[in-house]
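The protein record reproduced below.
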Amino acid sequence: MPRHEGRRRRAATAAAALLGALALTATACGPDAAPGASAPPLALPKAAPTSVGDLSGWKLEDWARFVADSGFANEVAQGYWSTGRTEGAKPRLVQEYALSSPAQGDVQRDAPPAAVPATPQPHPYTPATAVAGKLFVTTPKGDAVCSGTVVSDPLNPGRSNLVYTAAHCLHEGRGGGWMKNIVFVPAFNRDGRAGRGKPYTEQQAAPYGRWTAVRAMVSPTWLQESGVGARDQFDYGIVRVRGEGGTSLEEAVGGSVPIWFNAPREQITSAVSYGYPAERPFDGMELDHCDSAVRPSRLSFDRARPPMYMIGCTMTGGAGGGGWFITRDGKPNLISVNSIGDRNPSGYLAGPSLQDQAKQAFDYFAKNVK
């Protein structure tokens, strides 16, 4: 998609507040199936809950059994993500739900928000945006891309190796299995000014290196449900990554973003969503964002679960898992991730409200899943 200078200037102005806040925290899916992509799906973990309320009584041993039963394993062969593979990876589609369709069952939704055009992050990228990155995975249908965010690890301040994303970027849900070949590339960057088809170096594309997922967790509810709907209210996932040296991911990129769990909805008066949209009219080669200056709307498929946040945004598939940020006490906090939206054309994105279940999962993962 053409990138015009006027559009760049507007993007720079719109993102200035968030990027300034990010700087304050600096500390120091497609056809070409790959080998192993068609492995049989994992059985539903024995520890999966039968209802959302079942999680409230989970103890350490319940979470440990759930993680063990979920059977995550990730091996990435040396050189697997070649330039050709990264360019050929298809967008992991944002799950589609049309707000124009009649509400059925227990669906609760506010009026559709006005579409907010996605704007490209101006080049050259600043270190403040290095917390946002691109997630490469292999699905049963081939190589795909999502987005993710470097988040703070309360047990290792300044040395986090944690990436927050959407569950649908990591696991297919009920009847499916884990993605394979999961690699996170912070600040993935194909400078549009260079022109498509021209050679670019590994340093340009992955200025902070490539980070392999070694452990992962998604919402227990996500694993037991399928389809677009109530499970998307828990569409979150966590990845622990490892680099080639002894440096942590947070040290490499220069910062991380804390997650604001149980954020009071009345205090969320605006939001900025980042991601790498790769479905037309985007190409996935650059970081984009939607800046919503109004309070997020609500979208709920099950009234017993926290309603999703919803903002106007034209980002497409590939942006899934990208972080939603607000400024809190002068610093950015992550409050959600891109989960579902509409298509042809894209006009909104919705993401889960990270309440008790998400906090329980994150706390257990950060402390115990190494």
Remarks:
- Residues 1-17, 19-43 have pLDDT under 50 and may be disordered.
- The chain is about 15% helix and 25% strand.
- The two ends are 41 Å apart (CA to CA).
- Residues 5-24 form the longest helix (20 residues).
